[in-house]
Design brief:
Layout (H helix, E strand, L loop, with lengths): L1 E12 L1 H6 L2 H19 L8 E7 L6 E7 L2 H12 L7 E12 L17 H11 L8 E9 L1 E2 L2 E2 L5 H16 L5 E7 L8 E7 L2 H11 L3 H4 L2 E3 L3 E5 L5 H5 L10 H8 L11 H6 L12 H10 L13 E7 L3 H15 L5 E8 L5 E7 L2 H11 L5 E3 L8 E9 L5 H16 L4 E9 L2 E11 L2 H8 L2 H10 L8 E5 L1
Helix pairs in contact: 4-12, 14-16
Length: 486
């Protein structure tokens, strides 16, 4: 099955020409370069797709722009559009790669249109391979590869059953890196000089090294694979192009206007309306992102409140709400959970309900990026309406998870009602709900929304909350887990 077409466009900067150019020429080139990258990350040029730009380490290139688009015509347009910018005059293409995303035919359940796959979780997995987005990962690794066609080692002479067995073994190694490395496979037979392109994303480049090293002992690679050149790079937001050219650390964490005004005379802010959305994808705080999570956990720790660090690591929760009937929602979530459980970073995924129409899907992960990736699948569940109070000025606090002793469940519910009355009178409190896991009524979840972090912390510092924590020691079957909502 083929999906979106892919272009990896590697560029070297003509540094001598850049340094020698008049300032006004550099400003214009930078403005057009930022505008192009911004527009393509926002996919203003096509009906769907994804784009990202990365630095490239080493001598092979300085930048790589990666585009996924529904048609080859879309790629053609994007490629020529870049050549029309003033910034392109300061670059030279060192190499490129044209391919198309694909799901192999060795597993019949996967080699179908996602719309024809009965398993909802598997359907979403296949769709993510055919129509990939860029994970929130720092590093990228790209390489092309072939299957050997030597007289005694010809992959294409093997029976399909043997090839399927080899591919399955190969895939099991990849699964062991789930949550650490995201892989996109693109086919290029007849489209480029190699047969496949492999693009890896992750936050630790040594995971690329370990994954490829381990795979090379597998017969699918050791006997039948040939590899082309490898490229490794770091992602940066388009508005940081000026910082890249200036040799500054990226991402800068600044918005397009601030960075342009500080370092480039204002030129880089062209088309800066895109800058806010690009920044949001890289961890800037817009009310619900990761910023503030560490501060909140630290503040809770100062109050001697367990802040959700199983196995010595923080956890992150993606919480969405659904208007769908619970009986229809549960099988869908079970399908996703079956796929999530292949990933080492998955902690739990469950449906919680308050019995009066409020239903939440909670997925807890050991890393922020894994939680956000899961959120892409969860957001496609039926009836999903996001979370209440989406305005940027509000603050989504912890999800507070409690495993209650069965004989004290009613006591816990009654206590929440008492605390709820207190919350209703507190400044900045918007809403707090008590929900129970539909598979285990003693697994309780409190979602609490506040206007600001300070408002939330005033409650956590209150005597009422302290008294509740002390009371809960005899009521709970396990330590409570307080996690920041990703």
């Amino acid at each position: 099955m083929e999906g979106w077409y892919a272009l990896h466009d590697f560029r070297a900067i003509d540094w001598d020409a850049w340094r020698d150019a008049p300032e006004r020429v550099r400003e214009q080139a930078l403005a057009e370069g930022v505008a192009f990258l911004d527009a393509h990350e926002d996919v203003t040029d096509a009906e769907a797709g994804a784009s990202a730009v990365f630095t490239v380490l080493g001598h092979k290139a300085d930048l790589v722009m990666v585009h996924f688009r529904p048609t080859m015509a879309d790629l053609d347009t994007a490629e020529r559009a870049f050549e029309g910018t003033a910034f392109a005059d300061f670059t030279e293409r060192t190499t490129s790669y044209v391919s198309v995303t694909e799901v192999g035919g060795y597993t019949s359940d996967m080699a179908k249109d996602p719309a024809d796959i009965d398993d909802a979780g598997l359907a979403r997995y296949v769709d993510s391979k055919l129509h990939p987005s860029f994970p929130d990962s720092e590093f990228v690794c790209f390489y092309p590869m072939n299957k050997r066609r030597l007289p005694d080692e010809n992959w294409y002479d093997l029976p399909i059953e043997e090839r399927a067995e080899l591919i399955s073994s190969h895939g099991e190694i990849g699964k062991s890196y789930a949550g650490k490395v995201v892989q996109v496979i693109t086919g290029s037979i007849s489209l480029d000089d190699w047969e496949w392109g492999v693009t890896l994303f992750g936050d630790d480049v040594t995971q690329f090294k370990e994954l490829l090293y381990e795979m090379r002992f597998d017969a699918s690679s050791s006997r039948y694979a040939e590899f082309g050149p490898f490229y490794v790079g770091r992602r940066f937001p388009p508005h940081d192009l000026g910082a890249v050219l200036a040799g500054e650390p990226v991402p800068t964490g600044e918005d397009a206007h601030a960075h342009a005004d500080a370092t480039h005379g204002g030129a880089a802010h062209a088309d800066s309306a895109h800058g806010a959305s690009s920044g949001a994808a890289h961890g800037q705080d817009h009310g619900h992102g990761q910023d503030g999570g560490e501060d909140v956990r630290d503040a809770l720790a100062d109050l001697d409140i367990y802040a959700g660090k199983p196995h010595g690591e923080d956890v992150h929760a993606m919480v969405l709400y659904s208007e769908a009937d619970v009986d229809d929602l549960v099988p869908e979530v079970e399908g996703l959970r079956g796929n999530f459980e292949h990933y080492d970073t998955h902690v739990k995924t469950a449906v919680y309900d308050d019995g009066s129409g409020t239903t939440a899907i909670v997925s807890i992960w050991e890393t922020q990026s894994a939680a956000e990736t899961a959120g892409g699948f969860l957001s496609e569940l039926p009836g999903v309406v996001g979370r209440p109070h989406e305005a940027d000025s509000t603050f989504g606090t912890m999800g507070m998870f409690y495993t209650v002793k069965p004989e004290h469940r009613e006591d816990f519910v009654e206590k929440f009602e008492t605390v709820g009355e207190l919350l209703d009178g507190m400044d900045g409190h918007l809403e707090s709900s008590l929900l129970a896991n539909v598979d285990d009524e003693n697994d309780m979840f409190i979602a609490s929304q506040w206007e600001s972090k300070d408002d939330a912390m005033s409650f956590f510092r209150s005597d009422a909350f302290s008294d509740t924590v002390s009371w809960g020691r005899d009521i709970l079957a396990d330590r409570p887990r307080h996690v920041f909502l990703s």
